[in-house]
Amino acid sequence: MTAFADTLRSLIALEGPITVERYMGLCLAHYYGTRDPLGQRGDFTTAPEISQMFGELIGLWMLEVWHGMGRPERIRLVELGPGRGTLMADLLRAARLMPDFLAATSVHLVETSPVLRERQKAALAQSGTAVTWHDSFDDVPGGPLLVVANEFFDALPVRQFLATDRGWCERLVGLDGESLTFGLKPDPERGLGNPIRRGDVLEWPAVAQSLVRSLAQWMARESGAALIIDYGYWGPAFRDTLQAIKGHSYADPLTEPGEADLTTHVDFHRLAETALRENGRVYGMATQGDFLEALGITARASSLRQRATPAQADAIDKALARLTERGAKGMGELFKVLALSHSGLETVPGLALHPLSPART
């Protein structure tokens, strides 16, 4: 039992059961604030850590979108949850193809973890681009912006509601002796309608929707685009997707609070609806495999292979397969891609315009 787990149990004993959203928020703040969770020695591996090709293609995507925005003289390049800084380092290296873009760019990393900030500083020390760190997206200075969020939205807390005979009752985390356990609010939540099937779980991403609303409103004022890559679905799904990952394996979300990564699958439909309500343009959703293929990952792998040793060529082939693999458990299928922009942007690379998006202005 850790000191954080003791504190969490004491809080619940004093205040009573807490929502899943609050539980996730407390656990994730401790988890990310006290470790580097990435890599073989950590709990999970993200696409930028698998291959440089991923970040390089995102960099080329940013160049094309900047050009489509009319090449603004100042652009805020923002990454939400930048991990070790690997994606941004690869992105900026690819962006050297267009020196005017780098001259216009200031990099802003939204990161609360002091441990990961140190990793990011080391990764970007030689980038030649000014980098500023922020605790919140709201702290980023105004202006046209380009945003990338890779495996960020899945770690935002969600509310959960269970379909019961009484209606949608919110799921809580409470105590059973010394053990954490799930329970329900006795009174149903009003305004969610009547559930169809008893036992369904409705996940409500209020935190994610608030962020997307801020992004869409910002882009409507200043212009810009945001690229969201994460595992998820076009919802609603009506199932429990809360999961814990520890040591690259699934764990019980309640067993070791603050010591495992807690995530839920992203409901891209709700994110798109939120942006559309703010008159933002929506592109996608596409699978990661299709998106990377559209951006030219196969050609990039072929180019890298020409200058590689046999061992390096084998690693390139394995990385390409892992990033684009289809099937229910393949990253190329499981991970989805959605882009948002102001209504004046004509197109974005690799993604089709959502049919409900407003006309270009």
Structure description:
- With 361 residues, the protein is α/β, with parallel strands linked by helices.
- The chain has one domain (3-341): Rossmann fold.
- 38% of the residues lie in helices and 24% in strands.
- Strands 2, 3, 4, 5, 10, 14, 15 and 16 form an eight-stranded mixed beta sheet that branches.
- Helix 11 packs antiparallel against helix 12.
- The mean pLDDT is 96.
What is the chain-wise order of helices and strands? HEHHHEHHEHEEEEEEHEEEEEHEHHHHE
Q: Give the % helix.
A: 25-40%
With helices defined by DSSP (H or I, 4 residues minimum), what is the helix count?
Answer: 13
By CATH reckoning, the class would read Alpha Beta
First CA to last CA: what distance? Answer: 57 Å
Number of domains: 1
* Alpha carbon gyration radius: 21 Å
What name is given to the CATH topology? Rossmann fold
Weakly predicted, low-confidence segments:
none
Main beta sheet strand tally, sense and closure: 8 strands, mixed
Q: What quaternary form is this?
A: single chain
Shape: globular
The CATH architecture name reads 3-Layer(aba) Sandwich
Tell me how many strands there are: 16
Q: Strand share of the residues? A: 15-25%
Average of the residue pLDDT scores: 96
Brief summary:
This protein has 361 residues and is an alpha/beta fold. It contains 13 helices and 16 strands.
